Records
---
Amino acid sequence: MSEPLNRSRLLFALAVSVLLHLLLAGGLRSFDHERLPDERRTIRAALIAPPAPPPPEVVPTPSPVADATPAPVPAPKRPPRPRSPKPEPVALPEPEPEPEVPPQPVPSDDQAPADGESTDAIGDRELLDRAIADGALPDRDETASLTPQRAVVSEAKLEFEVFRGELAIGETRYHWVHDGSDYQMDQVTETTGLAGLLKPLRVEQRSTGEVTTEGLKPRRYVSRATQGKATEEEVVFDWDGNRVMLRAGTKQSEHTLSAGAQDMLSLWLEIIWRAQYGGDFDFTLATGKRFTPRWFVADPELGSLDTAVGRQLVKRLQARAQAGDNQIEVWLAPNLRWLPVLIRFTDRKGDVYDQRVRLIEYENLSLRAGTAGAAAGTTAPFGDPVDPPPRYEPAEEPANPYLR
């Protein structure tokens, strides 16, 4: 039998039990659980080690490794770069001196014979070269597409001094505008100076009509005098009815309308575009008194003419009419959109009246008398000489026959 437990032993056992519990509780609490994350950090350090191996992979150039990684892609692009130095053929500029060789001897040889020519002829060649460069002289192949809409400048203002011989007796002003389908043209002629005092005269003319690809088709022409005793005239074109009605004062007449017929103003626009088209041409001309055919013949060669607005390259056309009709000559300037710079009328009595240009305005160009020297006479360096404008003695009663 064990001896009975006394009170002191029970107390001692209880104390030892409590102490053990306290030790266990305190030890667990004092145990550092955060060391696990520290161990994880070391693991991370171990993970950093794998990126280190890539540098050694770059050193070995095994083709498979390079193909596996995308970085090697730029490596093949580098080879084309060495090709860039190929522009080293900078030696190409060396042949540049070659073009310099021809200009040295060739022009010198050409200029030598040119020295013997007149300065006027050289100037005419420059005018011709400029006309060709500006396209003012189209090739025959290009005339197929040439229409009045393209050939005739859309708006122009021209002023002429009217001479009988060398006596200035008046002035004429032209103004026209067209939009490619319709046109309107006005002309004012009046006597000036002594002629204006002795025989005052002012006549206003107007022509309206269509611009077609085949030419001008006038509808109505009117001529009225605001001073003097000139007869009022009117022409009405009926293209649908194929007839033309003429009126001069109280006298009237009617004729069958022929294709291409023109009046005294529209004829200038028709001449401008037909001259560019090339060759001879004809049409019937209507005034308030007559409806007669005219044949226009162009000089085969270009010439040049000294005018009040400078020396101009010109093409002369002559209008041949039936006996008893006024004769017309006109000098057109290709470098000035084929505008007239001299118009000459010869009446039935043989008296000659010149309209000499003093002002030309179209598009952005304005040429006025006094801006360049002018001398009488014409030359044709590329063919037979063109006779200079002849001098005529003033008549006792100067007049403008084309206003009658």
Note: The chain has twelve helices and 18 strands.
---
Amino acid sequence: MDVHETAPAPLGIAVQEVDRWFGEHVTSAAPPLSYDRVTGGHSCLTYIATDADGTRFVLRRPPVGALLATAHDVTREARIMAALADTDVPLPRVLGVCEDPEVTGAHFYVMSHVDGLVVRDAADADQLLPSPAARRRTGYALVDALAALHAIDIDTVGLGTLARREGYLDRQLRRWSAQWDACGLGDLGGITRLHDWLVANRPADSAPRIVHGDYRLGNALLGSDGELRAILDWELCTLGDPLADVAYLLRTWSATDARTGGEQLPSALDGFASTDELAARYAERSGQPVGQLDYWLAFTAWRAAGILAGVYRRYADGKMGDPPDDLPSFLVEVEARVQQGRGFASLD
């Protein structure tokens, strides 16, 4: 009996229909495929799809259920990645895009599988990057790739219409405010005052650059020597101020997770560069000033609170499958990110 007739279908995957699509659109695939969900992320549903020859692919689709109008646009993500394929930014290759929701209930895309290590915490770093030299290389490689991303001419790669060239910050403030309101969390952590401060103190627009939107160590695939093999998760990519990416990298480099009691960060281990060293490296490689980082650090903390609030709401509403056992602790982390933002803004 065909295993696809007896095994439960993965969340959001109509196995036979998706297998058929693979056979018609991904020439290197040999159906049938098995689908193993990638854990660790809380946004789109991501699966490693392994075909009959043992070749692995990666499939991404939105969460199931109703979503905000602009949320989890995976075809847009695929377009961005395809546009960056021949640049100095390492990332997987897009192999196919399905825009027919009849196949499995939503658009999805398939990309190449890149072998690499994901470092999410200090235990990962200790095991996967045992050499202090490899750890130092990792930090600088992340910054160098970010500077390379921000140096790309948006029109040359065909991304000049990815978003409006002006008003990035105002759009971000509106978008994540709307998400926060939709989550129904009220003034948790004093987020209203932080938002008001961000609006009142927003800097002038800079020249538009490609902004990744979620640029951090946990979205990188690494070699054991610290080589950067691929940057993942381009869902939030847009045109905007490059300091938003720099601040996000620095904040996540040094921020603890309140849900885990503030466990040690990877960057605390010997060898990893400090946030000051990373900021200086970015200024050197990009040629751009970094004097407004405090504002952008406060902004990225506020936005991170909004993003995690959305994750909490999707799990609570059953749109991401079974919720994690520690789901209530997500609200602890949401509030911690608000407090962190208030600290950068000197509101506490």
Note: The first helix runs from residue 3 to 6.
